[in-house]
Amino acid sequence: MFDDFFIRALVAGVGVAFVTGPLGCFVIWRRLSYFGDTLAHSALLGVTLAFTMEFNIALSVFVISSLIALILIQLQKKTNLPGDALLGLLAHSSLAVGLVVIGFLTFIRFDIMGLLFGDILAVSVDDLLIIWIGGAFILLTLKFIWKPLFASTVNYELAEAEGLNPDRAKAIFTILMAAIIAISIKMVGLLLITGMLIIPAAMARNLSSSPQSMVIYSIIGGLLSVIIGLFTSLEFNTSSGPSIITAALLLFILSLFKIKQSIKLKN
Amino acid sequence: MSTDQNILVKLNDAGLQLNNKWLVKGVSLQVEKGKIVTLIGPNGSGKSTTAKIALGIYKKIDGSVEKYTHKVGYVPQKISIDWTLPLRVNDFMVLTESLNKETIDEALSLTGVIHLKDKNLGDLSGGEFQRVLLARAISKKPELLVLDEPVQGVDFTGEIALYELIKKISDELSCGILLISHDLHTVMTATDHVVCLNGHVCCSGSPMDVAKNNEYKALFGEQASQILSRYEHKHDHVHTDEGEIKKN
């Protein structure tokens, strides 16, 4: 069944959407979209490392992204530069260093477009295993830290005062962010991963009235985006990442009609 | 003073310095089971900071804080919910602890906002939100309640009812309460112990003791001792950034 590349891509995409749904909600709630971008850009460095050391791509991206997250936390403590400047600094320099390193690796043929925008032809059976096992692990961990993470998202001091240890939850969440980027890079491409996190969640916000329903709508939105996007990609021979994100954007636009209605009802 | 096992939280000469400025300095106080301790003082006198020190929110403090309970309910002075977070009253009630429906309904009824259960937090008025905050804090039946201006924005009759409720909770659950309030009329009659702050502890004791205290009279004016409920806050000194006292 997994012999067909398209089935593999579909199964991989569905697995990714299940994880980006809930994580994307937290990215929006905690205003982490640029943080996600920075981790995703640094993933290129992880990919080059994987090629030179003949290492698993997902694992090496995970390690590099986690490292960048650590560096960011250190820089925040050591300098007075504002957060967005630090994020930009890390995002672009790690992307640049990654591209320079690729330039040196003339003996390996790189599909840069595939790396940046995703390539459904590149999804192997091994990747499926990584996505589904890694994805299940991410979701279980998120379920485990949900209460402290969510409470501190609403109000940090409340969570801390009532003994929920929000700092630990935040640290674990950062690792989960690196992990989702690692497992979805082949599918969506590193330039568009944050879109996969944010757009379905933004669409879900327009439709939902509670955090739980927002998570569910976000998963549904992600699934629909992946399925529509991949069929489009197959039909018109477009890159998988942009096709998925465009589908997500269309769903978001549709969701705006719902919110217009509810605003009208209020008035 | 009662026996040690009744102590829920104890501050020993506690203080907090931020960017070389003392927010509050040298505060010693303790909250015991079934007692209400009230912090009074002008704006910027370190009331909220003291409460947060007691809650263990600040990690790098001067002095020490001993906390003997994990069952804490907190009503912060200010809380803002972003639009991106869809949150109904019902979701907010179970924010830090899972509760069953009866417990949630009971707490919301006590503070008079059961009818708002399915409303979005963003759609509540200031007073309604304050009632929800209080309901959430008491619903988990805490041993220690920290209330930072819990009735701000609540209407006059509601204010009295909520203070009666706070007193009732303190008696029924025998929980200790650390209360911050500007509304001295109601507070002074219900509280067991008053701590007056102005960057440090000006004076403390039972409401009557504090009112009779000469220092208190000097600080707050003669009226304060005559009518407990109506006093004007007059401080005769300010604090420099170095933590020194400067007479006006």
Characterise this structure.
- The complex is a heterodimer of chains A (267) and B (248).
- With 267 residues, chain A is an all-alpha fold.
- Helix content of chain A is 84%, strand content 0%.
- Chain A has a single domain (5-192), classed as Orthogonal Bundle (ABC transporter involved in vitamin B12 uptake, BtuC), CATH 1.10.3470.
- Chain A has helices at 5-29, 33-53, 57-78, 83-104, 112-117, 125-154, 156-161, 166-188, 193-207, 211-236, 240-266.
- Chain A is globular and about 55 Å long.
- With 248 residues, chain B is of the alpha/beta class.
- Chain B has a domain at 4-71 and 181-247: Rossmann fold, CATH 3.40.50.
- Helix content of chain B is 32%, strand content 26%.
- In chain B, strands 5-6-7-3-8-9 form a six-stranded mixed β-sheet, with helices on both faces.
- Chain B is globular and about 55 Å long.
- At the A-B interface, helix 6, helix 7 and helix 10 of A face strand 5 and helix 2 of B.
Q: What descriptors fit this protein?
A:
heterodimer, A: 267 residues, mainly alpha, ABC transporter involved in vitamin B12 uptake, BtuC, 84% helix, B: 248 residues, alpha/beta, Rossmann fold, 6-stranded mixed beta sheet, 3-stranded antiparallel beta sheet, 26% strand
